[in-house]
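Readers of this paper often ask what the protein records in our data store actually look like. Below, we set out a record of this kind in full and without editing:
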Amino acid sequence: MSVESQATKDGEAALPRRREPDLAGLATFTLDAAGRVTSWSVTAEAVFGLPAAAVSGHDVGEVLFTGPGQRELVDQALAETAAGQVRSATVAGGRLGDGRFAMRWEPLDDGALVIAARAWPQPAPTWLSEAAARFGSSLDLAETAAVVTAAAVPGFADAAFVYAAERLLATDELTSVRTGQGVAAAGRGSTVRRLAARLAGRPASTTSDLTLPSEVLILGPGTPAFRAMATGSPVLFAHIDRETAERLTRHPGARERAESYTSYMAMPLIARGVVVGCTIFARGAASPAFNPDDIALADELASRAAVCIDNARLYDRERRTARALQQGLLPSQPRVPDGLEVAQVYLPVGASVIGGDWHDIVPQSSGRAALIVGDAMGHGPEAAAVMVQLRTAAHTLADLELPPGEVLARLDKMAAEIASAPFATCIYVVIDPPSGRCEIAQAGHLPAALVQPGGETTLLELPPGLPLGLAAESFQATQISLPPGATLALYTDGLVESRTRPLDAGLTALCDALGATLASPTATLATACHTITQALRQHGEDDITLLLARIRHDASR
């Protein structure tokens, strides 16, 4: 720290007084348009070891930026600030020594303000622990890879790119890093997908000039990244390979920018003995070339990052599997017969994608339609496994136009034969739009609700029947009349029952909501489904299904 004299009041010898640097640790100085130092802060003296008297009025390229390529960097930064732009870069070498400094040039009326902070070396345990804490913040592949590049740039490198092995993402094919086993057979390339990229001093939106987001590349056997993934060892190189250079010519200015970097490192990403991808770090002429100490630090970063990326990959695979199951298990958009309007809502409980509820609409050749709502007890994959079997069987039986009672009897027999299956409830309705006749049978299910055109709502008193799977001998069907404009509501218990609401109170609330929502003759069933489920759902304790159906006024009688 610099010291200046301070005289005492009684004229005794001066005592030294410390001038403490800014607690923020940022060194600041200003330059005129020609690059001469016009001001030099106390922290600049402390950080760079140069007193203000030694630099004021001098060309900054002669007193500070004396390393290879740094004069050009200063000229470019001054040109950009003169145009009103901000420039950031990591600089090392020359008068700066081996340490790397993150610097930001901001425009002034007649020159530039430079803000600098030591970016490297940093205490490795602190830096790695901070990076590791950020890695665990997301299970999204792209976000996790972006954390890797953000941790490396600008403190460790001027650019960073993260690639994942495409066949690992697409087919879950694992590749060991044991001796003699690489990511591809000899003479063949490796396909990778870019997950993230970061360039010092440039916003993330501009990194596409070197590589496009989610771009899929084939790395030839001669490329450093391929060698790193094939051998499981880092590869240092000074220039981009010919294959990469040719690929970059497709993007204007990309090859020139890539060739401005003078030191590269390709580091494999290895998790649980499996190569999951690679990271490429780059430094420009103003920064020192990568050395063995850098390799050790990059290896620590890559090891931690690889596990997090692999966790994100596994999570992404499970999420895609769940989505595929959801699309396969839930019914597709139904084909509703003429003269009938139908709307439905299904809400799984909690984080489950699919549960035990099911519903279906099956048009029949006679012009009638079968409406089915069922509930396999419980939720999650076990209930879903039973549900999909029952729904498939019910759809097939409905297509055969069997009577409602017989359909439930056959489903009951099937459910009884499913090993370790929970009980299930079901309500089965056949509607004939021209006549308005409905035939309904229940297997332990909650009663259907009938909403008259004016909004008056009642719960239908029907024989409840036993749940499916109890080997009941028969299920009694009941016929009712459904006049045009009246609405029939089928639902599961998740809509009306919870630990904080008794069933009777839930059924009353359902009737009130149905009557209030459907009182208007112009109310759409889709809007009513959404309004009612949002009004009645409690705390997400069970799956919710609501199906509404009514005969249109213009249906022929």
Summary: The two ends are 98 Å apart (CA to CA). The first strand starts at residue 3 and ends at 6. The first helix runs from residue 42 to 48. Residues 3-120 form a domain with the Beta-Lactamase fold (CATH 3.30.450.20).
